[in-house]
Specification:
GO biological process, one term: L-arginine biosynthetic process
Keywords: Amino-acid biosynthesis, ATP-binding, Kinase, Nucleotide-binding, Transferase
CATH class: Alpha Beta
CATH superfamily: Acetylglutamate kinase-like
Organism: Kitasatospora viridis
Order of helices and strands: EHEHEEHEEEEEHEEEHEEHEHE
GO molecular function, one term: ATP binding
Structural class: alpha/beta
Number of strands: 16
Number of domains: 1
Protein name: N-acetylglutamate kinase
CATH architecture: 3-Layer(aba) Sandwich
Bound molecules: adenosine-5'-triphosphate, magnesium ion
């Protein structure tokens, strides 16, 4: 998944644009224009749950969820849902970002994981999950985990002064598209590019110890040791975001931040010390004394 760091020493920052509607696209693009003009290499990766829900509603499709035995909730992506996901992300969210970037004078190229094999995934063939309250093995879910990123393609665009704007779906081993979580896609892209920072812009000002109270935002959130559950106040889409944050840090990304997508200068944590929550790996376990 890794590729040589780009020539010239410019640091790459990957920004996951989420926020379920809370993202301020104009402010984001204004800030992207400023940072790219100053020579920073930026890659945007976007989700779009709010737009997907809106489109599904317009088409009369009910979106469903899978709850894994460990409690992590993901999208149940049957063929119709994959169609809606692709139409919402590639047909609505991405064009909105590209036109706003263009208005701010930023040259950007929109890509899904299908373009030049940008995101290759291994499809989850049988998913053990609780569906509508019943434990089930789901076999028609079209989602997967990213196993390869075409980093050379992104480096080529960055070297040409272009901002890549990336989203699911990804390409599975059978040549068909699969859904892949956008937070984890952003982490995979950041690792593959050897990015110095990964910034998740979302609908909260960072990690909150009380999700109902924005004032409870943490400056730093230390992840629990691998295999241990997240604190009870972490829920919803934040659970998988912290999984993605861990993957990025373990993969060598120096700094991972979660910050407010509606802020006046949303990319502040891409080059400074917040505002937002910096995510850090657990302290290494103390080396135990060996008995004589
Ligand atoms: N402890 C917590 N701290 C902060 N946010 C939390 C916490 N627990 C749950 N959340 C919820 O998680 C949300 C972020 O995840 P969500 O999936 O909704 O957005 P996103 O990933 O930014 O956007 P998208 O899914 O559209 O890409 C927050 O807006 C908040 O509602
Ligand atoms: Mg999300």
């Amino acid at each position: 998944m890794s590729a040589p760091a780009p020539a010239g020493g410019a640091e790459t920052v990957v920004v996951k644009c989420g926020g379920s509607g809370a993202l301020d696209v104009q402010r984001l693009c204004e800030h992207v224009a400023e940072l790219t003009a100053a020579g920073r290499r930026l890659v945007l990766v976007h989700g779009g749950s709010a737009e997907m829900a809106r489109l599904a509603g317009q088409l009369g499709l009910t979106l469903r969820q899978l709850t894994a035995p460990d409690g992590v909730v993901t999208r149940y992506t049957d063929a119709a849902t994959l169609d809606v996901l692709t139409m919402a992300l590639a047909g609505r969210v991405k064009p909105a970002l590209l036109t706003a970037l263009d208005r701010h004078g930023v040259a950007a190229v929109g890509l899904t994981g299908l373009d030049a094999g940008l995101l290759r995934a291994r499809r989850k063939k049988a998913v053990r999950a609780v569906v509508d309250g019943r434990p089930t093995v789901v076999r028609d879910d079209r989602s997967g985990r990213i196993v390869e990123v075409n980093a050379a393609l992104l480096h080529g665009l960055l070297a040409a002064g272009v901002v890549p704007v990336v989203s699911p779906p990804a390409l599975a081993e059978d040549g068909e598209p699969v859904n892949t979580n956008a937070d984890r896609a952003a982490a995979a892209v950041a690792v593959a590019l050897r990015a110095s920072r990964l910034l998740f812009l979302t609908g909260a000002p960072g990690v909150l110890t009380d999700p109902a109270d924005p004032a409870s935002v943490l400056d730093t959130h230390r992840l629990p040791p691998a295999g241990e559950p997240a604190p009870p106040w972490v829920g919803g889409g934040m659970t998988i975001k912290l999984v993605a944050a861990r993957e990025a840090l373990v993969g060598g990304v120096e700094q991972v931040w979660i910050a407010d997508g509606g802020a006046a200068r949303p990319l502040a944590a891409a080059c400074g010390d917040g505002p937002g929550t910096r995510i850090v790996l657990p302290e290494p376990a103390p080396v135990g004394r060996t008995s004589p």
